[in-house]
Structures are given as C-alpha cells and as structure tokens.
Amino acid sequence: MAFIAESVASAIIDNLVSRCFSYLEACPAAGGMKDELERLQHALPQVQAVLTAVEGGAPVMVQNRPVETWLWQLRDAVENAEDVLDELEYYELQKTIRDRDDKVRGILSNCKRKFDSFVNRIFSDDTLKRLREAVKGLDRVIAGMGPLLHLVTGLYGPRVKCQKLEEIKNARETSSLLTESEVLGRDEERDLIVEWLIEPGDADVNVSTFTIVGMGGIGKTTLAQLVYRNERVQEYFDPIVWVCISQEFNVTVITKKILECVSREHFGDNSLHALHENLKQKLTSKRFLLILDDVWNDDKMMAWEKLVAPLKFGQRGSKILLTTRMRSVADMAAKVMKCKQESLNLNKLEESDYMLLFNKHAFLGVNPDDYKNLQLIGEQIAKKLGGCPLAIKVMGGMLNSCMDYEYWKKILEKDNVKLQQGNDDIMKVLRLSYDHLSTNLQLCFRYCSLFPQDHMFKRKKLVNMWIGSGLIPQSICGRERPEDIGKEYLNLLTRKSFFTCKTHDNRVEITKKYFMHDLLHDLAQSVSLGECIKIGGDVAENIIPKTVRHLSVEMLNLLSIREISNLKNVHTLVISVKEDNRHNADHALEFIEVIKGFRKLRLLILDVNFHSYKLPNALSSLIHLRYLSLSLWKVVNESIEYDGLTNLVNLRSLDVPYHVIENIPYISKLPFIHKLQNFVVREKSGYKIGELKNLRDLHHLCIMKLENVRTSEEATEAKLNEKEYLKSLGLRWSEGHSNSAEADEQLLDNLCPHINLKKMRIEQYHGAKSPCWMTNLSLVNLTSIELIDCKRWEQLPPLWQFSSLRHLFLQGLHTVKQIDCSFFGSNSGCAFPSLKMLLLWDMPNLEEWIGIDDRCMFPQLQSMSISDCPNLRGIPTLHLWSRDLHIYNVGLIAFQQ
C-alpha cells in the first residue's frame, strides 16, 4: 500500500491553508475559499490520526479496498495541492530572479513593487483556479473520511495490531536446534566465526560482540545454529544461551529469557532490578556465549545499555553473537559494549551449493534421473533465485508438488518467480525488513523498482533522482540540504541490508557502487504496485494504472507515447526508444507535443535519438522539472539559443549535450543547477562570466574561452570562492588565444576557488607564474590536479603541500626545465603522502629532477608514467620498479637508471 506519509501530508495541507489565508488577505480575487480552508484546518488532526494509524498498522499487512481507495484519493488531492504550492513558489522565485537581474541592469532604480501586486498578477491567470480546485479537492476527500474512521480503527487499531504482531512473533520464534538434517555451503563461514569466538579478545574488554549480517532468508539463523552446535564452542563456553529477539526489544522480557536459560528456572513477574542482580550473580566469572537471534533494534541506546549491564560481569573471553538484517545493529552492539565492531556479511550460496539444495527440495521423494527434462529448466529457475536458501527451499517445494514440464516452464517464464507464485513465506520474511523502514525510506526503496535487476547504482545519480522526483521534499529538509538527506537515506538503506556497497579505488578517487539483491528488487516491485512501474516492449500490451507516479518505459517506437499520454499524475518519466528516429520528424513532433502534456513532471529522462532542434525549448512549460536528461539528443543547429530552458528555475540536474549548455543565455536564472560542464564565456550579454555569480549550488563547473573575460575584475564576478559545494573545476582558454602572460596571470589570480574543491584542471593558460592561491595551504582538500598545455608555465607550484592529492597530471608544460625542491618542498616532512598516480607527458625541455635526497616521497604511489620528455637526464630512485611504471621517449640516462 503506497500511501503518503503522515508528516508529508500534514506539512503540505498546513502550508496550503496558511498560505491561502495570507493570499486571502493580500488579494481580494482569492475569495471564496475561506469556508473550505477553515474545514481543512479543523479536520487536519483527524487526517493525521488516520494516517498515523495506517502507518503504524503497516506491519500487519491488512488489505482493505475502501481504505486503499481513499488513501489514493487523499494522495491525489495532497499532491495537487503540492503542485499549486510549487507553482506559487515558482512564480515567486521567477520574480526574485527578475528583480535581481533588473537591479543589476539598473532598471528598477526608484520603482517599488509590492508583494500584493505580485499576488494579484499571479492570480490573473489560471493559478487561482487551480488553487481553488486544490482546496476544494482536499475538502471533498477529507469530508469522505468520516465513514472510514471506525473501519481504520478496526483494521489498524492497537488491539488488532498487537494481535497480528503476536502472530508474527510466534511464527518467527527460533531455537538453537537445527531444522535441517544437512546444511549446505556454510562450512567456511562457520569456521571463521568459531575461530573468532574462541580467541581471548582484547585484554581491556571482558565481553565482545560478533554480528552475522544479511538479508532475510539468506541463512543467518541456520549459521548461528551451526555455530551453537559446534563441539569446540560447546567445550569452550559455559553457559551457552540462545534467545530469539525478533521485533519487540523489551529489556525485561529478554533479560528474563537469558536468566531462565542460564539457571533453567522459571521467573515470574520479577522487576528488572531483581532480574539484573540474579543474572549478574549467575554470569560473574563465567565465560559465556550469548546468541541473540533476529535483532532489529538499532536506535534505542538506553535499552541496549540496560540489557548489557549484567552481561559485562562475565569472564574475559565471553562473547555475544548476534544475527540481524542491519549493519546498524552491529554498530550499536559494539558501541554499547565498547569493543571493536566485528561482523560477517552473509552472502548468497555458491552455485554448486544452491543447486544441491534446489535439487534436494525440487526432486524430494523421486529419482532425478527419471526427470531429465526438468533438470535443465530447474537449473535456470534456481539461478533466478539469487542464491537465497529460503527462496530455493520454497520454490523447490512448490515445483515438487507438480512434476510437469509445462508447469515448470511457466514458472521459468515469469519475471518475478520468487514472489508472484503465492510464496507467502518468502514475502513475509522480506516484507518484515521493509515494514521496519520509515515511510520516507520506504518511498525511496520502492522507487528503485524502476531500475532493472542487477543494476549498478551510483550514489550521486540515485540521490539526485530521488530529489528530482520529489521523494525528498523541502518540507522535511529544514536547514539541511536535500543532497545530504538523500545520502543519509542511502546510507541507512545500506546499513539495513537493502543495498550492498562496493568501493573502487581508481587512483584518482574512491567511488562507491551500490547493488540490490534480486529478491529485494522483486520486493520493491511488489510493494510499489500502482505507484512505480517499469515497462518493456509494447506499451499497448500493458495496463498502466492511473495512480502511477513514477514510470519507466522502453518503447519500440515513438508512436507508443500515445499509450501513456493520459497519465496526468506522473512525476517521474524515463523513456527509452529502441528505433532510430533521426529521419522520423513527424513522430518526433508528436512526441514533443505529448511530453508537454505531463505538467506535473519533476524528472524527465529521454534516451531517444532525436535530431529535432525544438525539443529543449518545447519543455519550457514543465515548470516543476528538477531533473532533465537528454543525453542522446543530437544537435542539428549549433547556433540556436535555448532560452526556454531558463524558464525551468527549479532545475537541479541538467544532462544535455555540450552545445546546448553553450547556448543557454542568462544561465543565472537556474539558481539550483548542480553541473555546468561547458560554460562558454562570450562578450555577448547573457554569456559573460558574471552569470556564474549566483549559482551557489554548483558541484561541477568547467569554464571555457576564458580569453573572453576582458578584465581581471570581471573574473571576480564569478564568485568561485563562495561556491562551497563546488567539487570539480575546469579553467580553459582556447588554443592559440592571443592574451598576454600578464593578463592571464591576473585573471587566474582572481579565479580562486573555495577551499572545499577536490578536482582542478587548467588548460591553455599562457601565464608564466602559478596563481597565488596555488602557493598557499588553502586548498587542502584537492585530490586531483591536471595542468594541460600551459606552455609558458615556467616554475611548478609547490604541490607537495596538498596532503590529500592522489592524482597529478602534467602535460604540455614546454617551458618547465627543472623539478626541484620548490615542487617537493624543502622541509623534512613527507611530500605527496597520498599521491597514487603521477603522469609527466610532453615536457620537451624538462632536464632535471632533483631535490629529493633521502626524504620520504610518494609513499602511496602506485602508477607513474613519463612520456615525451627527451631531455630528462635522470629520475630519482623511488623504489618504483615493483609498481606500475611506464617510460617512453625519455633521455637515455634516465632509462638506464
């Protein structure tokens, strides 16, 4: 059930009522809404109560069509209101930008414009009509809430919820006894945990923790049972205690369970104090092993501290072994016990093991050799299950009930064989993890169903898409930036085992890539039905519900767009067209007209091979757009200006071809834009470097044709030193430009970036000196520096002082003759402590590399390339021969050394 979060709905309704009342006072034309607004204000607490009850009741998974229908109606009404509020903010932002620009141009002078006249001007169009409709729509939906109050209380009330949770708890209760006669594929993991358990541990910590982390159904409990039954463990620890925690982290109940296991006695309604004292006495000087199975609590620090208080009196070498789906639980347990966090991420079974397990259940009670025709198809089905033991057991058992080729083939051809065949056991296990997420995290998780299985998520793109699609509204951000909240959401989902994170060090930077297990991807599709849909092939063959908010479509041709033209509530639209549309101008025009009808769009990605020059400007009416990608669009006329794009003042992410960026005049009208990979400076109004002044959210920027900046004072108008979020900066002059060395030096001195900058590239600079800001210690966060074709640069800057520098690329510095102590530094400290890659290319006049002596130099260097430096007579002995070293067209002496 993809309902809207109570906090989000309440914030939007409250904001709508508040702002409408202010407009009523400022604008007589906005009358006629007062009665509805007062009713909304009065009904808001009831709406909050209903949504809170539904959110709180989500884990019991009660399905009720009237409630779901009303929730979708409420969501439609709330989002309609949000659209109108966004539109009002859009016009206010446009006015602010226009007033700012007018002031800069000296137009306003003594002309004073009042807010109330602005409001009247807004309401002169159909915005007022939509505002009234939004208010009335909410009023109608909330008026229909009355009959549902009793129903919601009955379905999701405390008594029903407790009853359902008790049923879930009983179903999930575990013990130390293995239910399988044979466990396949976990010997290595078992031995690793046993070795850790019987190690003495730190001298200053009596009790330490080890956590088995993995998604639901992956075999954590079974592995813990194997460890419990291990002979070495049985001999080393006394007592050994098994307690199943499950969802309710009740300290008194858990303590009583531990005490009863240790003493083998029953304890009644004892106080927590009495239980603690008794348990402390039982465990003092005992080397115990406590296994806590199925732990969920990762945020109640005080509860944890109460639980472990008597456990700390155990003998040195005592251990606590936990199983959980969330890495955050491992962090919490280690933090409370003040020990090192030790954990094992339990991965899927290897192919040989999961095939043995599958065959064991699929061919139970029969001879597999009698079903040769099923073995190959069974292997293909098993591969779809992602190595998850629970899924393999359930699917194998289901197939075993019908040993028919056509039935097995039908199962294979299903997209979601894990969850679509009535496998409640799998769904319930996975759904528990989902139900423990906050509503905002659930929404972000569901959104990931738009991507294909095995998709590799890049953090920056996924977070930007979440923000672009409106999943992280400003109403929940407060003073925090949406990007920071999005990163935290991804971290939380990763720590709760919804994503697996893999890091990659490419020597320039450390990047992170995120993956989702196939079963979790299927879960995302299951819980997002009606909200997020991914369609491949012929659109006409798919029934798309009108409730869909986020849609990804792979079309066979442009004409398929007609099939989705009536979906007016879509916030996210990702379209990929397989056919080549370069010569299909009529279809392209129709495509553009249909796209313009999606007025609620927040995010638009078109992977379409267009050759129509009309597309970017045609999107100017989609004023809610935050994210726009036209990466495959082909430029047919490089002289056309795309001023229509500056109408999209809410844009944060813009991915279009370089020539489009070059031809957007007055780019300052996009104040939230994050990336300008090709800002070309011109002397023409609207393209000067001062356009960058107010773009304070820039993360990546490359400024081209810097020779068109006429004075060094004009360069300061870019305000690069105020762009605290800027991570990557490129500064480029055109090849063969005629500026003097002095002019370029003054210009570059006035393009000082913010200290947070991480990557910098300078090209075709004609100055002989380094800029003043490269000779001090301010840019401490730089990880990559590239100086390219700066042919008159004589003296290298003291780059040794950039302690975070990992990548250094010097190419085409034709005037540099010597690398000496000015480059390496003259003190005794370690120079370039983080550098991993060094490239020296096309430096024909470089003769000497001196000044190193016996200093610590390049301790982390992994790759070094020297090319086309024919006069370089020698390089120092840097113990590089066991690393990645490339030398080409370098002086003979250097090569011999």
UniProtKB/TrEMBL annotation:
Domain NB-ARC: 191-363
Keywords: Leucine-rich repeat, Nucleotide-binding, Plant defense, Repeat
GO molecular function: ADP binding
Ranges for domain Disease resistance protein winged helix: 450-524
GO biological process, one term: defense response to other organism
Alphabetized InterPro entries for the sequence: Apaf_helical, Disease_R_plants, LRR_dom_sf, LRR_R13L1-DRL21, NB-ARC, P-loop_NTPase, Rx_N, WH-like_DNA-bd_sf
Chain ranges of the R13L1/DRL21-like LRR repeat region domain: 689-812
Pfam families the record matches: LRR_R13L1-DRL21, NB-ARC, Rx_N, WHD_DRP
Gene3D superfamilies in alphabetical order: 1.20.5.4130, Helical domain of apoptotic protease-activating factors (1.10.8.430), P-loop containing nucleotide triphosphate hydrolases (3.40.50.300), Ribonuclease Inhibitor (3.80.10.10), Winged helix-like DNA-binding domain superfamily/Winged helix DNA-binding domain (1.10.10.10)
Domain called Disease resistance N-terminal: residue spans: 17-99
The organism's place on the tree of life at top rank: Eukaryota
Family: Belongs to the disease resistance NB-LRR family.
Name of the featured protein: Disease resistance protein RGA1
Originating species: Ananas comosus
